[in-house]
Amino acid sequence: MISYEFIHKFSDVIFVGLFFVNNKLLKTMSNSSLPNYLEYKGKYKGIFAWIFSTDHKRIGLLYLYSIMGFFIVGAILGLLMKFELIAPGKTIMEAKSYNAVFTLHGITMIFLIVVPGIPAIFGNFFLPILIGAKDVFYPKLNLLSWWLYIIGAAVAISSQFMNGASPDTGWTFYAPYSFRTQSNVLPALIGAFILGFSSILTGLNFIVTMHRMRAPGMKWLKMPIFPWTLYGTAWIQLLATPVVGITLLMVVAERVLNIGFFDPALGGDPVLYQHLFWIYSHPAVYIMILPAMGIISEVIPTFARKAIFGYKAVVISTLLIAFVGYFVWGHHMFTAGMSGTSLFAFSFLTFLVAIPSAIKIFNWMATLYKGSILLRTPMYWAVSFLFVFMIGGLSGMVLGALSINVHLHDTAFVVSHFHFIVFGGVGFAFFAGIHYWFPKIYGKMYDAAWADTGWIVFFFGFLLLYTPMFYLGIAGMPRRYYDYVPEFHFANILSSFGAFIMIAGLAIIIINLFRSAKRGKKAESNPWAGKTLEWTIGSPPIVENFEEIPEIK
Amino acid sequence: MEETKEHKIVSFKTYIIILFLLISHTALSVFVTQIDLGNLSVIVALSIAALKSLLVFSFFMHLLYDKRMYAFMVAGVLMVMTLVLIITFLDYGF
Amino acid sequence: MYSNLSNFSEGVDDSFVIIFGIIAFFLVALTAVLIYFLIRYREERNPVPTEIEGNVWLEIIWTVIPLGLVLGMFYYGWMAWIPMMQKAPEESIEIKTTAQMWSWKFEYENGKKTDTLYIPKGKPVELLLTSPDVLHSLYIPAFRVKRDVVPGRVTEMWFEANKVGSYDLFCAEYCGLQHSFMTTEVVVMTQEKYDEWYIDTTAAAKIMATPGAAGLQVLRDNGCIACHSLDGSKLVGPSYKGIMGHEVEVITNGKEKTVLVDAEYIKNSIYNPDADLVKGFTKGLMRSYKDELSDEEVEQIIVYLETLSDKEQ
Amino acid sequence: MTENNTHDHYDHEGSKLGMWLFIFTELLFFGGLFIVYAVMRYKNGTAFGLAAEELDVSIGAINTVILLVSSATIAMSISSIQLKKTKLTLILLATTLILAIVFLVNKYFEWGAKIEHGLYPGSESLEQLGHGEVLFFGLYYFMTGLHALHIIIGIIFIAVMMVKVKNGKLNVNRFVQLENAGLYWHLVDVIWIFLFPLFYLIA
Ligand code: HEA
Ligand code: HEA
Ligand code: CUA
Ligand SMILES: [Cu+2]
């Protein structure tokens, strides 16, 4: 049996452990006369050469390792839930642990992984290269963002180890339960607040970089799609994150000073809390998905050997998603007792926001038309991204319909929707990206056969894991349920088995990548015959990316 | 990208005039809200505040003299903010 | 998905089927095209790609057609929802419903209280939902209805059951430790059976005969059992078994002391739960029942607790 | 750091853009509070009106004027640095600084008086009033407190600028930091322009 304390200890070990693995990995050769960024010797030595480096590429890798560390914790927590849910009643833990586990799972997955994820890792690494710059506009601020990220994460995680219980509110921190519970909600909130700052600073940095540092000749409409999606994302980070910042601060004030903003016992309004929370958290889902779409928009053209179909339409739809995405937050509150007018408006806007996503899907498909398609690991991931993203997005349509949402809200259907789209979307795009850019980042090639095996195991595990949850939701199983009625047993078994298969796939993928970073064959500078700027420079790139800033015709 | 463009130097006189306008509007809003206008006083006070901030934005913060882009950005951000406020109020006022 | 168990289920199921049909069509069609392209245009079969920059007409077509479709979906979703939003019909039975950590309490027009929802078939029922503590949500999957219970407000919901039977009733909004145990049932009866049940007080009278039965009823009606077990197992609060006459360690004003559980102590524990905090339990979970339980009811509880003392077993 | 010395280059527009973006986040930060204020006022209209009478309009008005003047002086300091009048720049900045401090002192006395009357979060006399009043004062302390925090940051910002002007780091060719300080200070001003009517005037 897994006790509450055990979960604490266990996450502790993983966090500390993963942090120190990275440094040993990186010994590579350079194919330029200048030292590449991995070998470069700066003012500091050892680990300090990384954690005090302002090189955007090193910062990108710092994020990669820290996020991977959290990610493994989050994934194992997910697995624990699946063990628990394999049968009704108690299987491996108490209700108390279960509540703490899904809360921590949600917080790590959302705030520590997919929100910062792709912009912080690939954005940092490739944005300057893709627009022909030597670094971001504020390199020091960039480093500060990483430090804030780590500090925020540490504060949030510290809630697990302090006296008292781990937070058990769910990642949404709904009032007034988050005031009532005696668990350590405060550090989790403060951690999320700091993480917000980190995210804002990254966004700010990227916008200025794109405005001011594009290589000569690179007009706005010559920028690759990935930077464009980062641009849209950055604006959301800038304009939505402060709202959740202030909300969390108000919750802190309410807990400490007893000002009744949200607690009805003090005259506050709990639904107002939900408004403020989702004003951030809905746009935040587009913070997650837009950069993922950006990666897909790079991978598909490269492997179809042609330029993306309808460049302008893709750019415009990116900006539209970012914009309309601000005004649909209420679809998370359809049963919370909002007025009829707002229900109508929010449902309507929710359906509108699907259009730009649809445009993107169609353009990606059209890019494949008459291409000369090379099926390699990154392409497998990209194509399966299309599939799972469609499922996730289309199930979002079902949820957006008012009457159906009443039935499906807060059920396993929602859980399935967002795993398909968050994890299917962002996760698959992340794997597409890491396999696509791996040769550039490390100057090494991974073992393609293992990578493909990992993909297929993972993909089918994924489908088996989450598809039954659609059924469970329709049948009426509420989410955040530690225990369930026997009717739901069979689908839950299927789902749990899916999780075990998927984890096996994940293990293959990660081990393959780690081994290859160390021992892989040397990679060429342009293994996929890509057309964007990162493929014109050496693998791995030199410290300031370009010996000479390129001129774009 | 080196920026060599000349910056416009705003004269002290302009600033003083704006300051004068700002202070007189403050006085006006205090005055108007002292007489009882009911709900209207909320609207008047906030309109005056909006006018004042418009002055600050365009003169003190140089939106009138800088690149157009900044003015557009500010307008866009304020628009998002207002829309969010209005949409929130669909749940309360209607 | 069709069940037709309540007046709403048909509308909801219809719009589900329509929307599901559209999205399933898109999913299948697009996936088929995707796979076709991957095979037809793979490198071996089509070594030279044809560069196509874009096509404005296509873009317009695949913006406008989905736009029409999503508006259609919106319309169907919305139409089926209109009756739910409307006020309950005049002739509805009104039931005051309290959702509390972690139990349900239903109070009928004649003052009858239950922890299971009993309703007649074919008659509209209106629930007036309140919560003394945190958010909950009343969810009856079979009826396709759900409504959040927001502390500080009275929210209303209504429905009409079509078929006799008993159905699950869940709490769908996360409300803390025992959230997943905050479940009960809706029992739908024929009008005649319901009327019989409604005026019947004999069932209660029968239990009343045994000592302490009234007390047990009070505990049930007020959801105490959700946190306190009767058989010695530890839930959120201390078990009632053998509680009377025992010594417990409590924390009063930050200091530990040992007290003997007597009637006075029990009463104080119910009215000011945080005053003497039992060691090993969490503060703030149990709220004060000062406004809800009369002295008389507390007396009845005490009588009942006496019957649970160890000696008798 | 040595590895990025190329980025020491001077990009006036870029820095200014960065500052503006930061200002946008600040606007949204207070925007969230304004939403809460608006909703709470909508729900507790009369209580808010009554509570607002407790606040002293004249102190508020004086503070408004102080901030407006300080905004003008810092704006002028930017013109004067472009005219190479270092001394005048310093004088104008010092004026801004002093006005900012006067604002804080005023605020200190205002809060002090309120607290003496027992009107602070969690106080007994406040608890006796209705939820509406408690909320009003809660918001009042929270929002003006956050604003005061911005003033303090502004004071530090301006003080640093003075030092830099003094030793010539900021001059006719490079003054974007001063401009940014100005932008920040105007933002603080704009927020106050709204706080003033919301708390003091609409009674
Ligand atoms: C990456 C994150 C992400 C993304 C991109 C989305 C995208 C969408 N989401 Fe999702 N959502 C979440 C993450 C995300 N969501 C999370 C985390 C939650 C739960 C939060 C919680 O409560 O814990 C949630 C919950 C959630 C709800 C609330 C459910 C509830 O609690 O009751 C709703 C309701 O409307 C919804 C709708 C949508 C819609 C309409 C889209 C649209 O943007 C989807 C658009 C995409 C498509 C439509 C598919 C592609 C298009 C085609 C294949 C073309 C053909 C299509 C048509 C003609 C329609 N989401
Ligand atoms: C990114 C988001 C993400 C991811 C990846 C996952 C991964 C998993 N999740 Fe989920 N989950 C959430 C976000 C996520 N989850 C959220 C927000 C909730 C709601 C919490 C709440 O209710 O408050 C939730 C809730 C939730 C529940 C419901 C709890 C309940 O309501 O009772 C369950 C149940 O089984 C579950 C299972 C799993 C499992 C088995 C995995 C894992 O085992 C899968 C393992 C992962 C992989 C095999 C690889 C995935 C790879 C990536 C994502 C790439 C990473 C990206 C970068 C590094 C950029 N999760
Ligand atoms: Cu009550 Cu969940
Ligand atoms: Cu959403």
Please explain how this structure is put together:
The complex is a heterotetramer of chains A (553), B (94), C (313) and D (203). Chain A has 18 helices and two strands. Chain A has helices spanning 4-25, 48-51, 56-85, 95-114, 117-130, 139-158, 177-180, 185-212, 225-257, 270-304, 311-324, 340-352, 354-368, 377-400, 402-408, 412-442, 448-475, 489-519, and strands spanning 444-445, 521-522. In chain A, helix 3 (56-85) packs antiparallel against helix 18 (489-519) and helix 8 packs antiparallel against helix 9 (225-257). Chain A is globular and about 65 Å long. The longest helix of chain B is centred in the first third of the chain and has 23 residues, at 12-34. Chain B has one domain (12-93). Helices cover 71% and strands 0% of the residues of chain B. By secondary structure, chain B is mostly helical. Chain B starts with 11 loop residues before the first helix and ends in a 5-residue tail after the last helix. The longest helix of chain C has 32 residues, at 9-40. Chain C folds into three domains: 9-45 and 53-85, no CATH class; 93-200, Immunoglobulin-like (Sandwich), CATH 2.60.40; 209-307, Orthogonal Bundle (Cytochrome Bc1 Complex, Chain D, domain 2), CATH 1.10.760.10. Chain C has a five-stranded mixed β-sheet, with no helix packed on it. Chain C has a five-stranded mixed β-sheet with strand order 4-10-9-6-7, with helices on one face. The mean pLDDT of chain C is 84. Chain C has helices at 9-40, 56-79, 82-85, 191-199, 202-208, 213-221, 263-271, 295-307, and strands at residues 93-100, 103-107, 113-114, 117-120, 125-130, 136-140, 145-149, 155-159, 165-171, 184-189, 247-252, 255-260, 276-278. Chain D has 203 residues and is an all-alpha fold. Chain D has one domain: Cytochrome c oxidase, subunit III, four-helix bundle (Four Helix Bundle (Hemerythrin (Met), subunit A), Up-down Bundle), CATH 1.20.120.80. In chain D, 81% of the residues lie in helices and 0% in strands. In chain D, helix 6 runs antiparallel to helix 7. The model of chain D is unreliable at 1-7 (pLDDT under 50). Chains in contact: A-B, A-C, A-D, B-D. Chains B and D meet through helix 1, helix 2 and helix 3 of B and helix 1, helix 3 and helix 7 of D. The complex binds heme-A (HEA) (2 copies), dinuclear copper ion (CUA) and copper (II) ion. The site of dinuclear copper ion has 9 residues of chain C, from loops.
